[in-house]
Each structure stands twice: as structure tokens, then as C-alpha cells.
Amino acid sequence: MKTYARESYGLNIMMKAATNNRNKGLVIIAVLWTAVLLTVMAAVLGRKSRLDMKVCLARMESVRCKWAARAGIEKAMAVLKEDATETQTDSLLDLWSDNDEDFNDVPLNRCWFSVQVIDEASKLDINTATKDQLLGLPYMVEEIADAIIDWRDTDDTPSGTGVESGYYESLPYGYMARNGPLKTIRELLLVKDVTEELLYGEDMNLNGRLDYNENDGDLSPPSDDGDGVLDPGWAAYLTCYTSSGSQ
Hints:
By secondary structure, the chain is mainly α. The chain has 6 helices and 4 strands; from the N terminus they run ααβββααααβ. It starts with a helix and ends in an 8-residue tail after the last strand.
């Protein structure tokens, strides 16, 4: 009996030891899984925090740029108003039209703005230009000239090789033709076959200067011929503002 009892006691000890080892193994596995889950959660939260921070910074920079642009407009208006006290008219021959100190790289709260003076009165009015005048633009073709005229006229009858609302409504994201005066030159991008390359040429940022990326061929957008001469596109020749300031 004593021998049996000792054997039974020894068996119980072995069973308890095996149970303890199994429990310890389960605890280790649980700890490892917990560590993995915490690592994944920390990585997700960290990525979300970095993304939120980038979005916040982008919004701050957007607001900063917006008010810098507004400051440039107000600066130009102030200079023109001051100049109006001396002469009755404004022209590119006035001193304000070549004012490096007031108009170029003006610092403003960790950013800079520049003012570009554009002589709109000397441009071709897109809302009144004839077909022959439009065909005088570089790279202009008859189909696009007719499409521009159809876009601005008041009827829905295509003229020549042009198109009307029926064509635009059939596009994947359909819309109606203006059938009236264009509000901005950028609106031309809605007209059939008018591309950014035709409208803006190599001057995609509309600063009137030949930047490094506008003179490097196809190395970086926009695509250019690398000839050292800026192609300003149709935007340099067209306006939707008349001399009276109406649209």
C-alpha cells in the first residue's frame, strides 16, 4: 500500500508539473500575442498620427499661401491706387509696372509672394474673337476654333466642324456647353480638344518665367522642347475681360 501511495503521489506531482508547464506555455503565447497586437496597434496609431500631422501641415500651408496671394492682390491694388493720384491712366510705361521692391519676392510670415502685371487690354477677347482671329493663334486648328465659337454662342446648333451640348453630355462625366460668354480663360479646358499644353504651353505655373523644369525636355513635367525659350500657350494671347472691365 505504501508503495502504491508513493507511486500515486509521484504521478500526481508529475501531472501537476505538466499542467504548470502547459499553463506557463499558454501564458507565454498569450503574452507574445498581446505584444504583437500592441505593436500592430502602435504602428497603426503612429501612421495615423503622422498622416493627421501631414494633413494639418498641408492645411496650414494652404491657408498661408491663400493669404499670401491675397496680400499680393492688396499690394498691387494699393500701388495702383497710389499711382492713380499722379496720372489719369495706367500703362506698362508707368514706374509701378517694373517695381522690383514692391512686386518681387516680398516676404510674408515664412513665405513670399510676387505680383505679375499683365496687360489684358492688349489681348484677344475670347468672347468676341472671330474664327479667323482664333486661327491666328499658334497650333490652332479649325475644329477647335469652331468648338470655341459653339461653346460661347447662344444656340445648340453646331457650326462648321464644331460641337454643341449633345457632345459634352455624352462624355463619361457629362456637362452642358456654356452657350454664353466664358467667365475665365481656364474654362477653355472644357471645350473639345483643348488641352493644358495648348492653353498654358510650357508655363504651367503661369509665372511668365522659364523655370528649370520648363527647360529640361521630358525629364520633369511639363513636357517642353528644352530650347531655352518659354512657350506661354494661348493664355498669353487671350482674355475674357474687356477694356471696360466686364466679363
